[in-house]
Design brief:
384 residues; alpha+beta; 6-stranded mixed sheet; 5-stranded antiparallel sheet; 9 helices
């Protein structure tokens, strides 16, 4: 594989818009590249994710490298210095939406897998370009894993070329208070649902955080609030709804998170309902992805054999990775958090490079990621 070809393919991916639910055109490009590079099997699953497989000549495990191919949109009214869909290269950086999150990693995975000497592989390596990750982490990866039954998974989200052995999860929590309507000229005759919600918010904002040495601390972040009726005309609101984003640490369950709120004696005098949100999304193929928005945190010990194999492979590729964890949620919430399959994260770019104006990725990091994926494949599929 040539570095020029890798960079050109990353540019091609960046130039193709691929918002969640609109990935069809970029998947066509991915499938075409996998076929051009000689993957043994290439297909599109029912959700529209692209999957390619390189088969070794000896029996062995299945290693899955996963990157999502959807991106978030461009914020309206915010100017970019570089065309967000131009794939421009300037001063050793490739710019555009998805450069770091995570089309660069995807290009590196595909080229790394295609470069492998099949005669040296025990088992097979698969690369998936999953859809709709920005909407519901892990949902489309589940379908890929049901088809491949991988023994090991590598998530390509940004790690700054370090090796992540865990990650925070996230939960979307809906809170609703019910009051009693009244004319706003006589508010004492009603019960203001917004006032009751303010009481719940004050409690939540004062809850102590939990800390985990690997993935960091829990977070409650209020993301929206709306009252009903809205807009109101001389009426006291009788309902208020709030959404919280809760970042999770390993071991937390839905009941653990909800009980922090509903179990508080301070809120027993208000009508409060709390639940984990559910979601339903239609992919560009028409398939429906459904799921509860409780995406668990995950962690594997540093001594885990797959973690150590990946560490060895990266070092053999000339890298010097530190071991850490994701602070945001990834597809590993399913592969590791739900399915329990040994999983690591490795990718170019930094977490803070995602979703920003003038998103970019250093070309040196792109090249290093391709070497790193080759090192992981060689080590993981040649273990005795």
């Amino acid at each position: 594989m040539s570095e020029d070809s890798l960079i050109a393919f990353a540019q091609t991916l960046i130039r193709q818009r691929s918002l969640s639910g609109e990935e069809g055109a970029v998947v066509e490009l991915i499938i075409s590249e996998m076929e051009r590079l000689g993957f043994d099997q290439v297909w599109r699953d029912k959700n529209g994710s692209a999957i390619g497989v390189i088969k070794g000549t000896q029996p062995g495990p299945t290693l899955l490298l996963d990157s999502h191919c959807d991106t978030v949109d461009i914020a309206p009214g915010i100017s970019w210095a570089h065309d967000p869909f131009g794939g421009e290269i300037k001063d050793g950086v490739i710019y555009g939406r998805g450069a770091a999150d995570m089309k660069g990693a995807l290009a590196a995975m595909i080229h790394a897998a295609a470069s492998m000497d099949r005669s040296c592989l025990k088992g097979q390596v698969a690369v998936s370009a999953t859809v709709m990750e920005e909407s519901l982490e892990g949902a489309s990866l589940q379908t890929v894993m049901e088809a491949l039954a991988p023994d090991f998974v590598v998530i390509g989200e940004a790690t700054d070329l370090n090796l992540n052995r865990g990650g925070r999860g996230r939960a979307e929590i809906h809170l609703e208070t019910i009051g009693r309507p009244a004319h706003s000229s006589s508010p004492h005759l009603g019960r203001n649902a917004v006032h009751d919600m303010m009481k719940a918010i004050r409690l939540i904002e004062s809850l102590p955080v939990k800390r985990d040495a690997l993935v960091g601390q829990t977070v409650f972040a209020l993301t929206d609030i709306i009252s009903d009726p809205y807009p109101a005309c001389s009426m006291i609101p009788s309902r208020c709804r709030v959404t919280y984003d809760r970042r999770l640490i390993a071991g937390e369950r839905p009941s653990d998170v909800l009980d922090l709120i509903t179990g508080s004696p301070e809120l027993q005098d208000i009508s409060l309902r709390a639940e984990i949100a559910t979601a339903e999304y239609r992919t560009y193929t028409g398939a429906i992805l459904r799921g509860t928005k409780f995406l668990p945190a995950w962690a594997f010990p540093e001594t885990d054999s797959f973690v150590q194999a990946c560490l060895h492979g990266l070092r053999a590729a000339g890298l010097d990775p530190k071991i850490g964890a994701y602070r945001f949620c990834t597809n590993a919430a399913y592969s590791a958090g739900v399915a329990g399959v040994p999983t690591v994260g490795f990718g170019p770019g930094r977490e803070e490079d995602a979703h920003v104006v003038d998103e970019g990725l250093e070309l040196d990091a792109l090249r290093a990621a391709e070497r790193g994926y080759r090192g992981i494949i060689e080590t993981a599929l040649n273990r005795k």
